[in-house]
Specification:
Elements: E1 4-8, E2 12-18, E3 31-33, E4 39-42, E5 45-50, E6 71-78, E7 86-93, E8 121-127, E9 132-137, E10 145-149, E11 166-167, E12 173-174, E13 179-184, E14 196-201, E15 209-213, H1 219-228, E16 231-238, H2 243-246, E17 266-276, E18 341-343, H3 354-357, E19 363-365, E20 403-408, E21 411-415, E22 437-439, E23 473-478, E24 481-486, H4 504-541, H5 547-550, H6 555-567, H7 594-618
Parallel strand pairs: 11-12
Antiparallel strand pairs: 1-2, 2-5, 3-4, 4-17, 5-16, 6-13, 6-17, 7-8, 7-16, 8-9, 9-10, 13-14, 14-15, 18-19, 20-21, 20-22, 23-24
Helix pairs in contact: 4-7, 6-7
Length: 627
């Protein structure tokens, strides 16, 4: 598990920690450190650079967190045995910040969730002797932005150089021999990451190969990861499906048609060095690990040094004799005495350093004043996060009135307010739900800073100008007062909507009107069904029908009446028929006739249409009432 350590010039000695497994369920390959300090990785090996390694246990806080902003990292690699289908990689991920142990049981994470956990990933090299890729990945960007040479099946991978320049016998990089790799992370005057620049060089060759990745959408996330410190990782693996890295591509210019997986036994990495880029602050001195005491066998006696000879007390200096003056007047001088000296004897010291044991006890003059202890240096003030910056580590915001809200385990940001769910103001690539868990306390509001509120304004379709976009300054009139505002998001609906000056009252009246017409529709439908039922009964019963039912027309008559009503012809009461309420005196009330049903239905329909036309003129955009 702990194969040894390597030295990084400009950084110090670094331990190596083997992975828990290559992929879930597959054992990790072997790895060793050669006598020359080179890391030799065998097939399926994966190793993490660490501050320390403990046999039998994994702790993500012990992984190295190398800060590379404004710095250059250099190394030498030998991948002469890695052919098509082989992948020798040196890359960076945020292992030190990942507290999820993962399905590999070693806290591993990367952008492709190989062990079930995702995090930011910077691929300095994924390469074979025929292909090279350098790629930036945000935590959830599997493809990322890459450069180099090779790859593609129906599409083209990067083509920053070609097979004549890079490969066995290449004119610039002959991969049958070791060559040097340099990766830099330049920053602007404000300290923000500008790009990742990779340069391949080789002794005896005068044409370095360069890769510049400077326009990645998630560059801010890569900046945050590099600023917190990322863990260097070395791995070596193979696959029959590696054409994404070394395939021919649609243009046929890639190196490999088939991944034959002819991979050498091992690949090598050596000569690690970290240095500051020109114009950047120099690196801090590398920590020096002092040599520990020589091991002593259990039960062995510690050798005793011979005792020191006793110190001889130092005699006090006798008083000085006054010296006569050359003048006529003699002035007696007071006697001068030497300060009292106390001899201090210390017991023999037992130390692992023989030189320390030879130091004799010292003599110090008595009566010297005590020297006050220097005050401890004040701790630098905590740097709070700015707006739109990750505040998971600071839990505070630099701008007044802002609160640090957590989105998920990978991001938190300073915002005035936060609503759980997807924020439409996020870039489409990062529109995942916010948990809106507050971290720390809200920054105190500035006495002079105005208070900003977010409101939702609904306007009718077509009333909103087409050029109204996020950030547009607008003026709202609320209760006669004009308020300046800025649009933070615009959502245009697919159906017509209206804005009423009466607010909730108008909405309530529209709802009540719709409900009333629904009831009327139901009653008219029931009446029509009753009339149809009576006509059917009359036609089927014939002469045996009751007298009151015989007054209803037959089915044919009803059909003729309905046809006339459909065409808009006025309906007249048949001769000799009386409408309900006009029966002869003393006669029992007759049931309603079919003609009465038709007339009533016609009157209700006309009143309904008139009412509907009035509503349509009052409420534009409302759908016609359908019976």
């Amino acid at each position: 598990m702990c194969p040894g350590s390597v030295s990084i010039e400009g950084y110090g000695q670094t331990a190596l920690t083997n992975a828990g497994s290559n992929v879930p369920g597959q054992d990790v390959g072997s790895l060793e450190v050669g006598a020359d300090g080179a890391v030799v990785a065998h097939m399926n090996a994966r190793v993490y650079f660490s501050d320390s390694c403990t046999q039998g246990s994994y702790d993500h806080t012990k992984y190295s967190g190398v800060q590379l902003l404004g710095k250059t990292f250099k190394f030498t690699t030998d991948i002469s045995g890695a052919g098509c289908g082989c992948n020798a990689a040196l890359y960076l991920t945020s292992l030190k910040q990942n507290s999820d142990i993962s399905s590999c049981n070693d806290y591993y994470c990367d952008a492709n969730k190989v062990c079930g956990v995702s995090c930011a990933e910077v691929d300095i090299m994924e390469a074979s002797k025929r292909a090279w890729h350098s790629t930036l990945h945000s935590a959830h960007d599997h493809s990322g932005k890459g450069g180099g040479y090779g790859g593609g099946s129906g599409w083209n991978g990067p083509r920053d150089f070609n097979s004549q320049q890079y490969g066995p016998g290449g004119s610039c990089i002959d991969t049958s021999m070791p060559f040097d790799v340099s990766v830099s992370f330049p920053v602007d005057a404000g300290g923000q990451l500008q790009a990742m620049k990779v340069t391949l060089t080789q002794t005896g060759k005068s044409c370095p190969l360069n890769i510049n990745l400077d326009s990645y959408d998630a560059m801010a996330e890569i900046h945050e990861a590099l600023d917190k410190g990322m863990t260097p990782i070395i791995s070596y693996w193979k696959s029959g499906d590696m054409l994404w890295m070394d395939g021919k591509g649609a243009d046929g210019q890639g190196p490999c048609a088939v991944d034959s997986q002819r991979c050498g036994e091992s690949v090598k990495f050596s000569g690690f060095k970290l240095e500051a880029m020109p114009g950047q602050p120099p690196l801090e001195p590398a920590p020096v690990t002092p040599a520990g005491p020589s091991p002593v066998a259990p039960g062995a006696a510690v050798p005793q040094l011979p005792p020191l000879p006793p110190l001889v007390p130092i005699a006090t200096v006798p008083p000085l004799v006054p010296v006569a003056s050359t003048s006529r007047t003699q002035v007696p001088l007071p006697p001068v005495t030497q300060p009292q000296v106390i001899s201090v004897t210390q017991p023999p010291l037992v130390s692992s350093n023989p030189w320390m044991n030879r130091i004799r006890p010292s003599t110090v003059p008595a009566g010297l004043p005590d020297v006050p202890a220097l005050p401890a240096p004040a701790k630098p003030p905590q740097q709070c996060s700015a707006k739109n910056k990750d505040c998971r580590s600071t839990h505070c915001c630099a701008e007044p009135g802002m609160q640090c809200y957590q989105k998920n385990q990978y991001w938190a940001s300073c915002k005035e307010s936060c609503t759980p769910g997807i924020d439409p103001r996020d870039a489409p690539t990062f529109q995942v739900p916010w948990s809106c868990t507050p971290l720390g306390h809200r920054a105190a509001s500035s006495p002079t800073s105005p208070k900003h509120d977010e409101v939702v304004v609904k306007v009718p379709q077509g009333s909103l100008p087409q050029n109204a976009e996020t950030g547009t300054e607008v003026t709202l009139t609320i209760n006669g007062k004009k308020v300046r505002a800025k649009i933070v998001s615009v959502k245009r609906g697919t159906q017509n909507t209206t804005a009423s000056s009466s607010g909730a009252g108008s909405s309530a009246s529209s709802t009540g009107s719709t409900t009333a017409w629904s009831v009327v529709s139901l009653l008219l439908t029931l009446m029509a069904l009753a009339a149809v039922g009576l006509w059917a009964w009359r036609s089927h019963a014939g002469d045996v029908a009751p007298e009151w039912l015989k007054k209803f027309p037959s089915a044919g008559g009803a059909t003729s009446a309905l046809e006339r009503w459909r065409r808009g012809a006025p309906q007249q009461l048949p001769s000799g028929r009386r409408s309900p309420g006009t029966n002869p005196p003393g006669a029992p009330p007759a049931p309603p006739t079919s003609t009465w049903f038709l007339n009533t239905f016609e009157q209700l329909m006309h009143s309904t249409v008139n009412r509907q036309q009035q509503d349509t003129s009052m409420h534009q955009g409302r759908q016609n009432l359908i019976w």
